[in-house]
Amino acid sequence: MEASSPRLRGQTAILRTPPIPASLRICMRFYYHMFGKSMGSLSVFIARPSVPRLIPKWSADGQQSSNQSEWKFAEVDLFQTFVYQIIIRGTRGSSFYSDMAIDDI
Ligand SMILES: [Ca+2]
């Protein structure tokens, strides 16, 4: 997610998966990069298809990487008894020092 102008504080970038069948043993693993003094937040939610309510599953807020080349690893257990979608949401921080990325999901 590019945080430079014209992006503003609180704006989001959202990835949403197709519906995932219920009762599959799923553990989502990914790497994320959050280096910047005004870093925003990165969150993982699930939601039932066509239902607006987001159920939080994981999040990181503020700078996480200790230098420009450090990627952090995350694991999120997503077993559900209902059909759901995974939503990954990046939120820009207070200034342009807020670029973030995810990889290898
Ligand atoms: Ca930038």
Automatic annotation (TrEMBL):
InterPro entries xref list: ConA-like_dom_sf, MAM_dom, MAM_domain-containing
Pfam family, one: MAM
GO cellular component terms, semicolon-separated: membrane
PANTHER family per UniProt: APICAL ENDOSOMAL GLYCOPROTEIN PRECURSOR (PTHR23282), MAM DOMAIN-CONTAINING PROTEIN (PTHR23282:SF142)
Domain MAM per the UniProt entry, residue ranges: 1-105
Protein name as annotated: MAM domain-containing protein
